[in-house]
Structures are given as C-alpha cells and as structure tokens.
C-alpha cells in the first residue's frame, strides 16, 4: 500500500519547532530574508498553480458515467505523493530557520498552514485505500488556501512595523498587493 510509506512523512507540530533567537534587527532581517527565500523557492509557484492543478485532476479524468478513470485515480495518487514529499521538505526547511521571538507566533502559523497542506496532500495520496478521505481532502484545499491571504497581510504589517528592509522586492510587492 503506497500510503503506508507516507506515514513516515507525517509530522506533528512538536517535530517542527524552530530555534528561537533574540529580537534584534539583524536577526529579524536574517529570518525574513531566509523565510522569503524558502517561500520563493518552494511555495510561490504552488500558491499560483496548485488550485488549477487540482481542478485539472478532477476535470480531466472522468469517464462518461461520471466516475474517475483508473488513470485518474493513479494521477491523483501520484500528485498526492509528490506534494506530500514537497510539503514535508518545506516543513524541514522552516524548522531550520532561526526565528526571532517576536516572529514565533507568525512562524507557527506558517508551519501550521504547511502541515494542513501536507495533510490534504496525504489524503489525495490515499485515494485507492480511502476515496472518502480523498474527497474530504479535495474539499479542504479551498479553506486551507484562504488562510494564505491573512498570513501575507500579517507579514507585511509586521515587516512595516519592525522597519526591517528585506532583500526581495518581488516578495514585498506581493505582500503589499495582498493587503
């Protein structure tokens, strides 16, 4: 069973506790630059493409009777396995960051969101063993993605309040537009 191997990729919040550091301007800048790098390399493309990719998975693999084809079931399982692995990698990258104390709640929210996505992806990977769980997983993606906007807005507000200059103007532009 493919999903049995995914159990090792399942984590709990205690597994992903970062190192908390002092709230110096230097630490905040380093944290934000590192966080932005992780997000730009691992998340931005996903935010833009995942909802569409999931829609295509649902749209393109139904037969005339309205049932998923065997090929569709395999594609959904493969997508779930791939995305589970990618989100797990992202969780470990988030854990490696040194988080200033004033950013710890924010970091925890980001980590929780990625854990929710990981759970959703694992539900897709379980389509052969538990199609109902997969259906619920598809349904919860929307709710999970709706949590991204407030996180972006919160980041922009915190960056402005702290007066920290970050290296990525593209990311700051995205944050500014999210308000």
Task: Give your account of this protein's structure.
It is a single chain. The protein has 179 residues and is mostly helical. It is 73% helix and 3% strand. It contains 8 helices and 2 strands, in the order αβαααβαααα. It has helices at 2-6, 25-42, 44-60, 70-96, 104-125, 131-146, 148-162, 169-178, and strands at residues 19-21, 98-100. Strands 1-2 form a two-stranded parallel ribbon. Helix 4 (70-96) runs antiparallel to helix 5, helix 5 runs antiparallel to helix 7 (148-162) and helix 7 packs across helix 8 (169-178). It is elongated and about 60 Å long. The termini are far apart. The model is unreliable at 1-9 (pLDDT under 50).
Describe the secondary-structure layout.
Blueprint: H1 2-6, E1 19-21, H2 25-42, H3 44-60, H4 70-96, E2 98-100, H5 104-125, H6 131-146, H7 148-162, H8 169-178
Parallel strand pairs: 1-2
Helix pairs in contact: 4-5, 5-6, 5-7, 7-8
Task: Summarize this entry quickly.
With 179 residues, this protein is mainly alpha-helical. The protein has helices at 2-6, 25-42, 44-60, 70-96, 104-125, 131-146, 148-162, 169-178; strands at 19-21, 98-100.
**Largest sheet report:** 2 strands, parallel
Order of helices and strands, N to C?
Answer: HEHHHEHHHH
**C-alpha geometry:** elongated
SS-derived structural category: mainly alpha
Let me know the average pLDDT.
Answer: 84
The percent range for strand residues is under 5%
Total DSSP helices: 8
Strand tally is: 2
Low-confidence stretches: 1-9
| Alpha carbon gap, first and last residue | 44 Å
């Amino acid at each position: 069973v493919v999903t049995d191997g995914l159990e090792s990729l399942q984590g709990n919040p205690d597994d992903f506790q970062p190192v908390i550091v002092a709230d110096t301007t230097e630490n905040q800048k380093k944290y934000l630059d590192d966080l932005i790098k992780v997000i730009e390399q691992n998340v931005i493309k996903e935010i833009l493409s995942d909802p569409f990719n999931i829609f295509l998975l649902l749209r393109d693999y139904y037969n005339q009777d309205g049932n998923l084809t065997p090929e569709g079931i395999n594609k959904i399982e493969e997508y779930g396995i791939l995305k589970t692995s990618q989100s797990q990698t992202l969780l470990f990258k988030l854990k490696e960051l040194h988080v200033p104390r004033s950013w710890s709640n924010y970091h925890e929210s980001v980590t929780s969101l990625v854990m929710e996505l990981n759970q959703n992806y694992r539900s897709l990977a379980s389509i052969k063993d538990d199609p109902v769980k997969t259906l619920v997983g598809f349904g919860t993606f929307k709710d999970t993605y709706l949590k991204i906007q407030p996180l972006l807005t919160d980041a922009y507000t915190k960056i402005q309040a702290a007066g920290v200059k970050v290296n990525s103007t593209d990311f700051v532009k995205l944050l500014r537009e999210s308000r």
